[in-house]
Amino acid sequence: MKTFSWTQKLKQWRRIALSMAHLKTFKHTYRSSKPNPDQEIVSLPKVPERHESIYKLVQKHLRNLIAETNPCQTQVLNCRRSKTGKRPKVALVMAVISLTSTMGHRFYNQPKLDVDTVAPSTILAPRDATVPDPKTTEAKQKAARRGLIPVLMVDPVINNQIYQDLQQKIQQINHDRRIAGQFPFTSVLSTATQIYLRSCSESEWQAILAALNNASEKTENINESPTSASPSPVNSPQLQQVINELKVYRRINPEGLATLINTISQVRQRYAQALANLSSKLIEQDDDSENLSFLELTEEDWRKTQEGIPQALERILTQGIAPGLPLELKQQVVKIQLKHLVPETAQPVVTQLIVGVLKPNLIEDAAQTKLQAEQAVQQVKPEIVEIKKGEIIVKAGQQITQREFVLLDHFKLSRREVNWWALIGCGVLVIGGVGVFWWVEKRFHPGLRQRDHVLILLLALSTPLLVSFGVNYSSLPAVGLLVGSFYGSALGVTTIGLLTLGLPIGLENILWDHLLANAAGAMVGSLMAGRLRSREELALLGITIGLTEGIVYLTLNLLLSASVGSIWLTILQEAAIYSLTGVAWSVVALGISPYLEQLFDLVTPVRLAELANPNRPLLKRLAEEAPGTFQHTLFVATLAEAAAKALDCNVELVRTGTLYHDIGKLHDPQGFIENQMGGPNKHDQINDPYFSAAIIKKHVTEGIVMARRYRLPKVIQAFIPEHQGTMQIAYFYHQAKQEAKGPIDESFFRYAGPIPQSRETGVVMLADSCEAALRSLKDATYEEALAMVNKILKARWQDNQLVDSGLTRAEMSQIAEIFVQVWQQFHHKRIAYPKAVLNNG
């Protein structure tokens, strides 16, 4: 049927109406905003039967007009109908059926004689057959990969570091030996005696000198009996041996003893200095025993030792040091290499020296290991099951193995059929899951629409459908990201948790490491998505999801794998692939989210932030064509946002809804005083309160039309009529009342409504009502401003504009104080600059 404009419809009604009273009744019906417009139309006065068909046509046009000009009321009616009607029950049944049918996929054609079941009778092969067993082949290939020993290679960087460490230690030993002096320092004493004389204590050295002095004072008497000699003050055999050697030297060369004693004293001083130097470095070195032993080596032995150490170390490093090699094995290897390269006296200390600098120098050769893994997989022959006609496949009472099941399934003897009991059980579990979701919804996110349930159901169905087709990289990350972003963390986590628990029940070939990795990434996405406010943050969240999946997959396989090689070869590669797929699913979710938001009329924090951008076409038009209204909108948004934050309302929704609440004024900007900029008042020229009131009221209907044209979400559209509710256009009502000679219809001077249906729209109504009054205040005190705001809020409360908003009477005082505080911030006093300062500027 052709759509007529409001003027055309009035003309049509004027022709068919029986009287002006009937026309006024139609007009009043359109202007009123009672909850049930159908009841209003039915209650119109009866008309003659000859006009009955025309009257029904008028009813139809009027009903369509009400639906077009008051969509928020229609939406409320639809919501009420869906809450009390049969639609939720139908949706619940459809959800259970669809989820059961997809998640119970394996029960449709389930073999009765499956692996690990008992054969009821002996089954023979009806013919010869050669059947491949892909499942066993895949398991063997996977075992070959994970059981592979990695190919190792020597790391030259580590070798260079070991050589540098050894060279530093040799240089330190040479430095200490130079301080201690040349050894042996004389040729008249044995090496053992020289070692003792250089390192003995001061008391022992004084005892040696005393023994030599006492012996020189006595006269030798060959006739004197041995018992008459003085007893030796020293009981140590080694010390006695040193004294005896010195006495022998004195007999041979009495003049040279003093020179020898002086040389020994100098050697002892140098040795003590070397010891002090070593003691000062004990903080840096754990053990200086090897350095002390190196000081005892002769020059010849030390020369041979320095030549043998690099050769031994080169042999050891060429063979390689594997990670985790025990200390005992390292020492044994070093001793074997040093056996013929260094003097035997130096081997113990050199062994300690080399073991101290050794590090594992073998690392995995990734390329060769990968090549070896591929070769190992290729060497795994496909598992083939052969059987001859008449041979026994399985005996009665025997448990069926994988090999026997392959044959039974090949011969179609596995008795595949619909497992109704399992399917019913799966349905019961699905009902329980849907019940859990319903409880969480009522607890954390009540009031979901029918289309919201459809969207969540479609997203949930995507995962079992992909898994049933054998895709291991399921869509759980995208589902968690979208549900968490659209409906909050609680519903997102619940959806992912139920899917993770339900997928293994009815679907075959579920790999737990794959499933848990996907579920972990999806959980992270659903928990964090609802808190983010931009697409860029969601993109970074996608990277986090991918990393979570890769880490969880790697960790699970580390726990399951018994081979180090498999960890760094296949598992690490698969973990990287999982990270990439997690990011890919996040990209898919971000790509389709704007389309889902438009298709299902969703408002997310991200979309609200985008709609609140002042560069949006509609807001840009408002700023350019109606600048006064735009400034009014900004101040109202500031007031409403502050109150919404204090009342724990949806601040993003309030901010965005306020920016669009007066877009209808674009139809006639000069009809509103804030856009007249001191020019002539259009309503003074009209001089008709009825026509002026119609212009004022039209900014609501035109605003809804514009909101639809620019595809604003319906929750944003609701701010346009509800911020005015059914308030009275007081100025023109009183003007009409003064000009009228009789009673006038007060309902004509009221907005069509509906009154605010949420706390957010109620807050915007109050902010819009107080904005002009607060802006007009100049030098008012805080108490005066608060009294005025309370008066305005009281008027709205008494006019029953807030009965459906959810705001309480106690919150009115809190809102008033917040409005006045914001007003004070905007109208704070400034310092008056002197005229001289202004002139100099």
Category by helix and strand content: mainly alpha
Q: How much helix, percentage-wise, in residues?
A: 55-70%
- End-to-end Cα distance, whole Å, is 69 Å
Main sheet makeup: 2 strands, antiparallel
**Shape by Cα distribution:** flat
Sequence stretches where pLDDT stays below 50 over 5 or more residues:
1-51, 65-86, 218-233, 282-288, 562-567
Explain this structure to me?
The structure is a single chain. This protein is an all-alpha fold and 841 residues long. It contains 38 helices and 8 strands. Helix 6 runs parallel beside helix 20, helix 9 crosses helix 12 (256-279) and helix 15 (327-338) crosses helix 16 (347-357). The two termini are 69 Å apart.
Task: Annotate the secondary structure layout.
Layout: H1 6-16, H2 20-31, H3 37-42, H4 52-69, H5 71-84, H6 87-103, E1 110-111, E2 123-124, E3 129-132, H7 134-146, E4 152-154, H8 156-180, H9 191-199, H10 202-217, H11 237-252, H12 256-279, H13 289-294, H14 299-319, H15 327-338, H16 347-357, E5 362-364, H17 366-379, E6 384-387, E7 392-394, H18 402-410, E8 416-417, H19 420-444, H20 450-468, H21 476-487, H22 489-506, H23 512-529, H24 535-560, H25 564-599, H26 605-611, H27 617-625, H28 627-646, H29 651-660, H30 682-686, H31 689-709, H32 714-717, H33 719-722, H34 730-739, H35 759-776, H36 782-798, H37 809-826, H38 835-840
Antiparallel strand pairs: 1-8, 2-7, 3-6, 4-5
Task: List its salient traits.
841 residues; mainly alpha; flat; two-stranded antiparallel sheet; single chain; 38 helices; two-stranded antiparallel ribbon; disordered N terminus; 66% helix
